[in-house]
């Protein structure tokens, strides 16, 4: 084994950059999220819109992957993907999912849970049309999550669909958006001595209840 394996347990960091209090946080978790995401972008966090998406299969096995946040408002949190992918199949069987942002440079984590629905075809069309051409072709070329015999399949598919669609590939029927409608949010701010700040917001009778969780 490498030295890395030997010393991994010694890697430690003290979190001291900021704090999160009941008084200074927003009563609406969406506003809190908007503020933290704005600060992550301003703070030059790499890929600030990258979020880990957890889904659970019908055999109760969880799985995670990274996707990109492409929209957020009072309706929920949006990303785009292949509906036939593993995550798509799992969401078809169980619409509950969890999202996590880890903004390392700000010592912050946001966790979001809720029920997932597909975006409308119009929304998916509009976002698809805004993507660069190679990404639009890529959506056709990649049977996401399927076993393929080699990389050459992707290259051949991309060439085939480029020739077929030229500059105007339509949105594939198996590709589109999902929206997670949050019923719980958590905001974590690292603090000294592992006494981190955690504020959870949960929906109670249509109103958000903000509570502090032990770290
Ligand atoms: C930074 C980053 C962003 C990604 N964004 C997306 C995305 O928006 N949509 C997507 O389908 N896959 C995205 N991926 C790839 C996924 O992590 C994953 O490999 C893919 O969606 C297949 O996952 P699945 O087999 O669990 O369905 C991204 C990967 C990384 C590292």
UniProtKB/TrEMBL annotation:
Q: Where is the Pyridoxine 5'-phosphate oxidase dimerisation C-terminal domain?
A: 175-215
Q: Which UniProt keywords apply?
A: Flavoprotein, FMN, Oxidoreductase, Pyridoxine biosynthesis
Name a biological process GO annotation: pyridoxine biosynthetic process
Q: How is the cofactor bound?
A: Binds 1 FMN per subunit.
Q: Which reaction does it catalyse?
A: pyridoxine 5'-phosphate + O2 = pyridoxal 5'-phosphate + H2O2; pyridoxamine 5'-phosphate + O2 + H2O = pyridoxal 5'-phosphate + H2O2 + NH4(+)
Matching InterPro entries: Pyridox_Oxase, Pyridox_Oxase_N, Pyridoxamine_oxidase_dimer_C, Split_barrel_FMN-bd
Q: In which pathway does it act?
A: Cofactor metabolism; pyridoxal 5'-phosphate salvage; pyridoxal 5'-phosphate from pyridoxamine 5'-phosphate: step 1/1; Cofactor metabolism; pyridoxal 5'-phosphate salvage; pyridoxal 5'-phosphate from pyridoxine 5'-phosphate: step 1/1
Hydrolase as a keyword of this entry, yes or no, is no
Which sequence ranges are marked TM in the entry?
A: none
The entry's substrate-binding residues are 12-15, 70, 127, 131, 135, 194-196
Looking at the keywords, is Oxidoreductase present? yes
Q: Name one Pfam family in it.
A: PNP_phzG_C
E.C. numbers: 1.4.3.5
Q: Which residues bind FMN?
A: 65-70, 80-81, 86-87, 144-145, 188, 198
User: Which residue ranges does the record assign to the Pyridoxamine 5'-phosphate oxidase N-terminal domain?
Assistant: 37-162
Q: What EC class does the entry list?
A: oxidoreductase
Cofactor(s) recorded in Swiss-Prot or TrEMBL: FMN
- Offer an example of a GO molecular function term for this protein: FMN binding
Q: Which PANTHER family match?
A: PYRIDOXINE-5'-PHOSPHATE OXIDASE (PTHR10851:SF0), PYRIDOXINE-5-PHOSPHATE OXIDASE (PTHR10851)
What this protein is reported to do is described as: Catalyzes the oxidation of either pyridoxine 5'-phosphate (PNP) or pyridoxamine 5'-phosphate (PMP) into pyridoxal 5'-phosphate (PLP).
Q: Which family does it belong to?
A: Belongs to the pyridoxamine 5'-phosphate oxidase family.
Q: How does it assemble?
A: Homodimer.
The name this protein carries in UniProt is Pyridoxine/pyridoxamine 5'-phosphate oxidase
Please report the organism this UniProt entry assigns to the protein.
Answer: Ramlibacter algicola
């Amino acid at each position: 084994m490498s030295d890395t394996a030997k010393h991994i347990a010694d890697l430690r960091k003290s979190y001291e950059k900021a704090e999160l209090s009941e008084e200074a946080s927003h009563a609406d978790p969406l506003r809190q999220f908007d503020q933290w995401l704005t600060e992550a972008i301003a703070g030059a966090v790499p890929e600030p819109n990258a979020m880990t998406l957890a889904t659970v299969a019908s055999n109760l096995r969880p799985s995670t992957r990274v996707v990109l946040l492409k929209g957020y408002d009072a309706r929920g949190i949006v990303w785009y993907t292949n509906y036939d992918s593993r995550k798509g199949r799992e969401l078809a069987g169980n619409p509950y999912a969890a999202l996590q942002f880890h903004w390392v440079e700000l010592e912050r984590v946001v966790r979001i849970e809720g029920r997932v629905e597909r975006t409308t075809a119009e929304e998916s069309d509009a976002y698809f049309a805004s993507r660069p051409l190679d990404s639009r072709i890529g959506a056709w070329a990649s049977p996401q999550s399927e076993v393929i015999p080699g990389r050459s399949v992707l290259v051949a598919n991309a060439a085939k669909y480029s020739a077929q669609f030229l500059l105007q590939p339509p949105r594939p029927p198996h590709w589109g958006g999902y929206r997670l409608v949050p019923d719980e949010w958590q905001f974590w701010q690292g603090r000294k001595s592992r006494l981190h700040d955690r504020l959870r917001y949960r929906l109670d009778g249509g109103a958000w209840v903000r509570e502090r969780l032990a770290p």
